Amino acid sequence: MKRRLGSSPLDIAPLVLGGNVFGWTADKEASFAVLDAFVAGGGTMIDTADVYSAWAPGHQGGESESLIGEWRRARPGAEVLIATKVGMLPGEGGAKLAPARIAAACEASLKRLGVETIDLYFAHQDDEDVPQEAVAEAFARLVEAGKVRVLGASNFHAGRLKSAVEAARRAGLPHYQVLQPEYNLVSRHKFEGELQDYCVTHNIGVVPYYGLASGFLTGKYRSAADLGKSIRGGRMAPLLEGKGRAVLDAMDAVAAEVGATLAQVALAWLIAQPGVTAPIASATSAAQIEELLGAMTLHLSPEQLERLTTAGA
To answer: At a CB cut-off of 8 Å and minimum separation 6, what does 201 contact?
Structure first.
């Protein structure tokens, strides 16, 4: 079931667990239950970031990493890969991808996670104020020191990903082997086209975030009356007014045909897309994660995939 993550040495299951909710909308007990269920169900990689969840009142960032580290210490036998990110949480060394910030942020993440090596370390966002060669050198020092295994980029557009990879290669340094873009059935423009083509051509593994479009693709929001169901509801109005209804209709039909939930269909569609290794999805309960894990073994026919793709075009 595992897939090779681009040209990296990492093999992962086709679903990555998002850690943005840990210590935020999922407390310690719920987070531990989700993590336990994910690993028990065959999951192999957890994705987090140093900035999670600095946006919450009273939080300063690092809450998710700290909770994952606490869980790891309580489950010493659990075999799981950790992906985290730098670039959105200001702190020691500066901001974004300043080399000193990368070094300091990595040390802080290692300490919170309780690990000696981060399996996959992402630049959380591009930083045009720092030469890409300097960024590559900063990340290379972490790889050489054994603090990071594989490098990735998140929220990069095609031109900048290409120039970053080329800058690192020219200098004989480790380059980005993984991309984390926003990508799902109702948000495709940020990845499809030049960026997807580049990743496929250069064997850059893709682990998309917002695989369920913040819950829209679970079918939770089907009318204006549903928008008050959560704090995210206000963001769903444009989707309902656009192609969202057509996508949900197509998903309803496919879900009925294969005996799956809408969330499983949405993730299975992503898993089948060119270049995609594994989508990222988060959950706040063991029941939710058990449902999401079903996407890893859900097979959609070429005709079903085409119907879903057409509905969201």
So the answer is: none
Q: What is the dihedral of CA 46, 49, 55, 58, to 10 degrees?
A: 90
The two tokens of residue 272 are: 């089948």
Residues 109-134, mean pLDDT to the nearest whole number: 98
Only one residue has tokens 């008050």, namely: 228
pLDDT category of residue 282 using cuts at 50, 70 and 90: very high
Taking all residues of the chain, what is their mean pLDDT, rounded to a whole number? Answer: 96
Collapsing DSSP to helix, strand or coil, 312 comes out as coil
Residue 138's nearest CA partner among 124, 120, 151, 119 is 151
Condensed to tens digits (0 to 9), the pLDDT of residues 239-281 reads 887 789 999 999 999 999 999 999 999 999 999 999 999 999 9
pLDDT in tens, 222-231: 887 777 777 6
Region class of 15: left (phi > 0), else alpha (psi between -120 and 50), else beta? beta
- DSSP assigned state of 122: E
SS3 content of the chain, % helix, strand, coil (to 5): 45, 15, 40
Alpha-helical (H) ranges within 13-149 are 28-40, 63-74, 99-113, 132-144
Q: Between the CA of residue 2 and those of 16, 72, 148, 183, 310, what are the distances in Å?
A: 11, 22, 21, 21, 28
Q: What angle do CA 297, 299, 300 make, to 5 degrees?
A: 150
Half-sphere exposure (Cβ direction) of 198: Cα atoms closer than 13 Å: 19
Q: 198: which 2 tokens?
A: 């580049």
Phi, psi of 3, deg, nearest 5: -125, 145
The helix or strand, by DSSP H or E, that contains position 152, with its residue range, turns out to be strand 148-154
